[in-house]
Specification:
14% strand; globular; alpha+beta
């Protein structure tokens, strides 16, 4: 489906603002936090701790950062095509969040390494020692949750409509 110019302007503005917030928060973390030291916010439950992560969540795949660079690049390139498929606000919002989260971390992977794609993501929000993340991670996870909820709701609505159209019961 074709989106109006104004719809794309709103999508791109939201995308840009989310990336800007992520990058500004990472710049803040790099200048204000010492590497490895924890600054408690809510005791051990939530703290700030500067970490450079070459992998994904829980440092998974840290020995092959190029894989996450390629995956993030594919998401960033493909997301506008996927967004085009939707007309409703919620899935567009969710996909824009996923797009921005992937782009925020891709920027780190491209800019913070000795070789293209070998960069480490700046993480600084420590969740009770379970994992350390950043704003891009929050935005990406929120987008995935919103999208899954949309798909569950839209699928239920579609199935309900199909049964009703066939003369069945709801």
């Amino acid at each position: 489906m074709r989106k109006s110019k104004s719809a794309w302007i709103v999508i791109l503005l939201l995308w840009g603002v989310l990336i800007l917030i992520d990058q500004l928060s990472k710049a803040w973390a790099l200048t204000r936090l010492s590497s490895g030291a924890r600054l408690p916010i809510f005791g051990d439950f939530l703290s700030l701790q500067l970490v450079h992560n070459a992998g994904a969540a829980f440092s998974f795949g840290a020995d092959k950062p190029w894989i996450f660079t390629v995956l993030a690049a594919l998401v960033v390139l493909a997301m506008p095509l996927l967004i085009r498929q939707y007309q409703r606000t919620l899935p567009i919002l969710a996909l824009t969040f996923i797009w921005a989260g992937a782009a925020g971390n891709l920027g780190d992977r491209l800019a913070r390494g000795t070789q293209i794609g070998s960069g480490k993501v700046v993480d600084f929000i420590n969740y009770n020692g379970w994992f350390v993340g950043n704003i891009a991670d929050i935005v990406l996870v929120l987008g995935v949750i919103l999208f899954l909820l949309w798909e569950l709701w839209a699928g239920r609505q579609h199935n309900s409509t199909a049964v009703t159209a066939k003369g069945g019961q709801q």
